């Protein structure tokens, strides 16, 4: 499986793979709700798999995954701060009910940094929590501290999971 993955992704070269490891998680976190459709976490695991089979440098996959997580969260936070609840008002009612928005904002306000940390590891929350933190008025400095911390743990966990799969014998894959 690693050989198939390498053949089909390395068509874009090492820099293309690393760009995917950076951009997909960034876009996933930066686009509220719609980011859940992007395979950001899958791209991070893929980067780890290719590092495990010595096709891309491990440190580069780690750095790109971390940077993508932090960049996406920062953009999502800025969008929430800038457009506040007007951003969520544009989402169709059948996808996001007003009561759910108020409850989510309340949870983010109460949870603070814990919400950022847990949100990094949950697919749908990964797309919503940065924007909700910006909307809730969370101070930037603590938000960035929690973003870097959660992104570092998340990037390491999933790059190394992929790295292990890249080293796995073929019959297991």
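Q: What amino acid sequence fits the structure above?
A:
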């Amino acid at each position: 499986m690693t050989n198939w993955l390498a053949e089909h992704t390395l068509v874009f070269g090492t820099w293309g793979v690393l760009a995917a490891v950076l951009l997909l998680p960034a876009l996933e976190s930066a686009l509220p709700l719609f980011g859940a459709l992007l395979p950001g976490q899958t791209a991070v695991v893929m980067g780890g798999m290719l590092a495990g089979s010595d096709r891309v440098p491990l440190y580069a996959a780690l750095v790109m995954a971390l940077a993508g997580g932090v960049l996406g969260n920062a953009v999502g936070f800025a969008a929430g701060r800038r457009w506040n609840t007007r951003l969520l008002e544009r989402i169709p009612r059948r996808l996001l009910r007003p009561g759910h928005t108020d409850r989510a904002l309340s949870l983010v306000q109460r949870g603070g940094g814990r919400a950022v940390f847990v949100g990094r590891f949950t697919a749908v929350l990964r797309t919503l929590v940065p924007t909700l933190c910006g909307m809730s008025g969370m101070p930037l400095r603590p938000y960035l501290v929690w973003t870097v911390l959660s992104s570092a743990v998340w990037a390491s966990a999933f790059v190394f999971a992929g790295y292990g799969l890249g080293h796995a014998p073929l019959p297991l894959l």
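Q: And what stands out in the fold?
A: The mean pLDDT is 85.
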